[in-house]
Amino acid sequence: MSYCIDLSGRVALVTGASSGLGERFARTLAKAGAAVVLAGRRIERLKTLRADIESQGGDAHIVGMDVTDTDSICAAVAHAETDMGTIDILVNNSGVSTTQKLADVTPEDFDYVFDTNARGAFFVAQEVGKRMLARSRGAAPGTFTGGRIVNIASMAGLRPLGQIGVYAMSKAAVVHMTRAMALEWGKHGINVNAICPGYIDTEINHHHWQTEQGQKLIHMLPRKRVGKPEDLDAVLMMLCANESHFVNGAVIAADDGFGI
Asked: Active site residue: 3, 112, 167, 199, which one?
């Protein structure tokens, strides 16, 4: 006997889908049968991803979105629902970082990180959440199946790390935001949870793991390895599944034990 999570008939919006974890999340959801809305600023990258998903039998659509611009968020979500139908799943993934000591952080550095990671994440979730709330309140009895919001935080939001203190602060805000949304929206059938990934090898940081500093960091990790994007597939699918209606307000560390 095998167990299968089937997301057929669901519409999933993935922010920051043009690369890294966002790209992997979109592929994973599409493979499970969801119609995926790819959101981001790098449209050409999104077009390439859409073509690849469609070549494998998946359903994908593109919307341009700048999460630091609330007008862009509202327009993108409206466009997505006009073209694909109501959004059932949000993977709130967009994020940026800087690397420096806290004493060297400028107001521009701080705003750059918080505008995307905290403010942007909040207003994306709010815009999608408001639509989920309206659907819940107006649905005929027995017809509303609930919504799933998965915020991508970081193990740095649970355990501050040197050189990325502002990033850690922004992701700690995402963790608390997740719990606040779960508290307010859970009674409407909307489940809000967070994933806190550990060190994951993506195209953005791949070169770092080959450097002396990167190798030192790897040897500090519990199992002397970094993860791969696909290592997050199982926890993502669990939180997006129709069957996960009893999981709300969870903050799940997927860090290979680094936070222990």
From this structure: 167
